[in-house]
Design brief:
The protein is an all-beta fold. The chain contains no helices and ten strands. The radius of gyration is 13 Å and the shape is globular.
């Protein structure tokens, strides 16, 4: 069973940066495309960013394009989400999961951006 663990969240001010990590275990990491998702209070979970198996292709939701950057280190079984120019609307619990064949959701990591 593939498992994901998110980390790196916190409380920051608007305009600050934050880097999240997603560690994947229990499978062949390099075989998975991986995505970041978020869920704000009272809203449904939404896609944020995705990265291909090799890391050669990345894609983003319009709301974060130009501010967030996704990357991966296949040697460390880890996907990262670098978040710059954070705004209060980015406040949410952030989750990662496999794309195309999702596994159980992890607990996520809370990101809170104050104005």
């Amino acid at each position: 069973q593939v498992q994901v663990v998110e980390s790196g969240g916190g409380l920051v001010q608007g305009g600050d940066s934050l880097s999240l990590s997603c560690t994947v275990s229990g499978g062949t990491f390099a075989a998975y495309a991986v995505g970041w998702f978020r869920q704000a209070p009272g809203k449904e979970r939404e896609f944020v960013a995705g990265i291909s198996r090799s890391g050669g292709s990345t894609f983003y939701a319009e709301a974060v394009k130009g501010r967030f950057s996704i990357s991966r280190d296949n040697a460390k079984n880890t996907v990262y989400l670098q978040m710059n120019s954070l705004i209060p609307e980015d406040t949410a619990v952030y989750y990662c999961n496999l794309l195309g064949r999702p596994t159980d959701w992890g607990q996520g990591t809370q990101v809170t951006v104050s104005s």
